[in-house]
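Lab notebook, bench 4. The sequencing result for the construct came back, and we need a structural model before the next group meeting so we can plan mutations. Quick request posted to the team channel:

Model the 3D structure of this chain.
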Amino acid sequence: MGKEGAPQSRPQSRPLSPARSWWAVFIFMVAVMFNYLDRQLLTLLVTPIKADLGISDTQISLLVGFAFVLFYVLAGIPISRLVDRGPRKWVVGFGIAFWSLMTAICGLTRNFLELTIARMCVGIGESCNAPGTYSMTSDMFPRDKLAQPISVIGIGTVAGSGVALLIGGWLITWLTDIGPQSFPVVGTLAPWQMTFVIVGLPGIFWAILMLATVPEPPRREAAGAETPTFGTTMRFLRDHGGTYIPMFLANGIKAMLSFGIAVWSPVFFERQFGYAPGEPGPILGIISLIVSPIGLVLGGWIAGRMAAAEYRDANMRMVYLVTIPLIPVAILYPLVSDVSFAFVLFGVSLFLGSLGSGPANAAIQSVTPGRMRGTTTAIYIALYNVIGYGLGPLVVGLLNDNVFGEAGVGSSMAVLALFAGPVGLLFAWLSLRPYARAMEAAEARGD
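Done. Here's the predicted structure in token form:
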């Protein structure tokens, strides 16, 4: 029996069985794969889109990053309130269907403005996914075992990126060979437009499967817990800023390094080593599909072992430790002159980055009260995407257009790594002690 006045777990419906919980994790993982497949596809289509629409590297960076991130952020907060208040599976299911449809519509656009608006709508749909997915997963598994399923879900991230490179690279090469095609109603579509349509539509069917087979898990929360207002959640984050600020910044700046390099890697191999558009995609995709899932599963397992050994800061400690070797690898990779060595370093950088991905997400969920997780995750993902997916590719694009030129994309990537790596490492180190104290407080709250 707990001490008088201590928060107790609320009596609630039976938790999901392990089999149903892991089925949900599988569904979430594939949904995240579609998420990143739709998001990353544009990186393979840079050269034909630039040629058809007559746009610069900076404009490409805006399409990849801020056009997507802007509405991802604006929609994320109100959507997260729905996650904290109501059935989360319906929010996630709608998001999957909507972003998939909008990806297909990207293939029907005819100019930069239309493609920008379509990318913004993709961002709205994808903003539904992370808050609901992580909130539901956190209620399916014990806190000390959460890094493992979240790392498995994270496989969808790298699988999506890998499939985008592998299948997208093959698809754009094949479609380029057959040339533009005419269709009823929509007219003539270029190969890059057909790629968007073909890749976007399958996600709609996955949304239907998710809604039909994944149950809404009972929420794990303290007795008498009610959904807090947005202001209450913001005050909680402010009062615990010593914990959340370094965590958010460490993960966001590390993402700035990772996304900035990953987005421009296909273009780097095209410009540096003479590959045709889409041609390096299958090689990069195979590398990603091999090394990243291993890193994600291994990173979650190591974090779990560290937590079992009484390391309260296990999740953020993993982020800190893997960033140390990641920095020199990320700087060296875009500067080498041997193509085989460049592919090897690309794989090493993906492996090191993926080791900390699951623990980074688990860290946020583990220390946040149950009915604040949706809003907190939305705020975190907003910052993560603005810093990582917005600024990372944009910095490289700006350096390409204004400093190094198109042929100097490798130098732009190296400069980004030289700045973002050490700064991210500093914030990861600053997060360790506050995070350990927050873990103890979360365990005491019982949520």
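The two ends are 17 Å apart (CA to CA).
Will bring this to the meeting.
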